[in-house]
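Lab meeting, item 3. Inverse folding demo.
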């Protein structure tokens, strides 16, 4: 009963025929994590004598995924904005919310660092202040000996766009407001495409670890990382927690499946094991993209 089509469908190698679980997500779908979760979950269910089935991944940022959840287009959303998730629970469009994994925002930009972010002592709020100050200065007097400071925003209501907006408003800046700052580049695309554009155009941008490690070397080699979210401080402004949200309109015919999935995601030897094993590129030289949910 979905009017939207899945971006990818997974069968766990078991050749199921029907989609019995519909998951909405943006970046972790593009990195391959949703597929890894789907395949492992199908195999887990099969060991519990559940007939093979399919899992569909529906590409959408946090705002889109919660909207699909509210209309019953998907059963489960994997999203990255606590305020929006709590609102969905409050209004009744979501009925359960569990911690799925931790992703991490990264502030990246041209290695020449025209905004002198490296002098900010690792303080991400100070870095955003420098982007604004130098961006404005470069608009007033365009530099002739270096690239001007520009910031690429996904400008698409995604969790990344919301996070970057919070960091700008924290320093009292709204560069997207009329008349909007010309150094603020509005580029509404999904994560991989946005990072590639920032790389090609020598612009600063907010991305996430999963997107960075899933991007080709010709994209990342033209950028430097200036700040990274970590797992130590739960209030780290660049920590990007992902929650799995069950929709009130999840397909009742597949209740057995989505109930199992919400429980399996939390299991140390289930969904959490997949998180700690998931690397890009796959294999021994790969890097683990995400951190397990905190206990």
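The presenter then showed the designed sequence:
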């Amino acid at each position: 009963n979905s009017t939207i089509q899945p971006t990818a469908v997974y069968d766990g190698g078991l050749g199921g025929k029907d989609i019995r679980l519909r998951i909405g997500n943006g970046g972790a779908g593009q990195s391959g994590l949703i597929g890894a979760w789907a395949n492992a979950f199908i195999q887990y269910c099969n060991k519990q004598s559940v007939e093979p089935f399919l899992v569909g991944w529906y590409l959408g940022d946090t705002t889109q995924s919660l909207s699909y959840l509210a209309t019953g287009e998907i059963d489960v959303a994997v999203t990255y904005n606590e305020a929006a998730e709590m609102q969905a629970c409050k209004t009744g469009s979501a009925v359960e919310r569990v911690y799925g994994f931790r992703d991490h925002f990264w502030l990246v930009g041209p290695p020449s660092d025209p905004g002198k972010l490296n002098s900010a002592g690792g303080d991400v709020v100070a870095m955003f202040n420098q982007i604004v100050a130098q961006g404005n200065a470069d608009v007033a007097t365009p530099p002739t000996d270096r690239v001007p400071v520009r910031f690429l925003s996904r400008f698409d209501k995604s969790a990344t766009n919301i996070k970057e907006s919070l960091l700008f408003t924290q320093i009292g800046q709204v560069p997207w407001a009329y008349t909007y700052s010309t150094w603020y580049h509005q580029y509404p695309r999904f994560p991989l495409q946005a990072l590639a554009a920032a790389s090609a155009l020598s612009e600063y941008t907010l991305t996430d670890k999963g997107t960075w490690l899933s991007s080709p070397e010709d994209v990342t080699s033209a950028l430097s990382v200036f700040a990274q979210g970590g797992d130590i401080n739960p209030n780290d402004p660049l920590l990007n927690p992902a929650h799995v949200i069950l929709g009130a309109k999840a397909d009742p015919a597949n209740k057995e499946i989505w109930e199992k999935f919400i429980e399996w995601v939390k299991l140390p030897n289930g969904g959490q094991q997949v998180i700690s094993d998931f690397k890009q590129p796959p294999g021994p030289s790969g890097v683990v993209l995400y951190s397990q949910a905190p206990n």
